[in-house]
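lol ok so funny story. i was supposed to be doing the assay writeup but got distracted and ended up predicting the structure for this chain instead. priorities right. anyway since i did it might as well share w the group, maybe its usefull for someone
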Amino acid sequence: MPDLIIKSMIVLFGCLIGSFLNVCIYRMPRSGKVTLDEFLKISGSKEHADKLWEDLINSGYIDEDGYVEKKFKKLRKKAEVAKFELTGSYEKSKKQVFKILDESCELSIDKPRRSFCPNCHKQVLWYDNVPLLSYLSLGGKCRFCKKPIPFRYFFVEFITASLLLVLYSFFGLSVQFFTYGVLTCALIVSTFVDFDFYIIPDEITLGGLVVGIILSLIFPQLHNVSTWSASLVQCLLGIFAGGGSIYLIGRFGEIIFKKESMGGGDVKFLAMIGSVLGWQMALLIFFLAPFFGAAVGIFAKLTKGAEIIPYGPYLSLATFLVILWGHNMLKFLFYF
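and the output, tada:
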């Protein structure tokens, strides 16, 4: 098959995949369905709503100020979350709370099935959902409410296709291309979710960790070995080197600064990356990422007074660079 046709197909599928990644970026941190059975496990007196409020806090549904807890991850910031105002009888309040939770936590990757405008929530017409082209033809605005659609939607589709094309130019149609392509998609979703929410979804980290172990067993060449057992060892070393390095530096930061300096999501994230790339690359990423993060962190501190920055995007950037040039970096380091 001519190389131009292959590249064209990669760009086409990359745009389609990018469109799906946009769905993941928007919905993953806002998903979480409340089931009636789970809700009814809350105990309490039926005499008044004060007991229900206490039970909701103790059960982890809301915090002490009445906001939905992280396990029901619908909205970005507390300012956007409707507070519970419990009035009337216990039963009336209970129905009110369940209705709010049920409606606000309904979103998931596959529900609703069709895309919708993030502003007016109307369903996007199929011919307005063509990657890249629809955004340009609509001028970056919703057909119905005319409000701007974030440029991120266009950018994610574009960058996904572009990065897959770069991977193809380095690895051809190989096991490495497809594996690193999946990993790159995970990096993209994690980056944009972390920018918005300061979290990295467990669906990416823990799910990716399982996928990394499975791929290491099936394709030992990912770790430059010939047997599945040797590949598994390299995979596990990558998990411990990646996750362990972030965990230790986080603990050290807590001791020095007396506050949390590294999130658990970053630990799981680099562990997942290490399962695919191995311990050497995981450690290389660990030492490379701070150079990007520090530069941005200093700028954010000076311009906005920001105390924390999302670290996932810089782990992702370091990871992609290591995928492309990691072996050359190691040769250069070992040369000196």
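The CA atoms of residues 238 and 274 lie 4 Å apart. Confidence is low (pLDDT under 50) at residues 42-49, 70-82.
back to the writeup now i swear
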